[in-house]
Hints:
Layout: H1 2-11, E1 17-26, H2 31-42, E2 47-53, E3 58-63, H3 71-79, E4 84-99, E5 102-106, E6 114-117, E7 124-132, E8 143-146, E9 151-152
Amino acid sequence: MRCVLLFALAVLPAAAQFRVVSIWFTGVGCQSCTESMGERMRRLRGVESATVNMKESIVEMRLAEQNRVRIEQIRDLIEQDGTKAIRAVVRVTGDLSNDNGRWLLRPAGGSLSYEIAGPDLTAGQITINGEIHQLHSDSGTLRIHVSPPAKSQ
Length: 153
């Protein structure tokens, strides 16, 4: 019975996930830190590709369709050697709901949610292209500013 339950959970599609992430950074301490950054990103389970553009100070990542990578994990990996993650552009699919006037997107695989700021939002499964201006939040909830159009699924 336990095997059947585990199999059923494994084949269920994830409710949401980040699919494309680009993070700008500053304050790289050394050349070897930069060279190892892409490799650190590729070690995350669910990362299909990760490249570091030193000239533009950006890490660009593509994630597998079924992944549980959180933007906070990526940010923390970038910052583990003293580098500072500044902002991110993301594409994420998930369940959008309105909670007392705040739009929240809930990714699969955890209890985290992201506040969504943008026009013409509708509850339900949605793909959002947006920008996170602050990768550290005093409230603990990161805000994604929607870049039109948001697509209902």
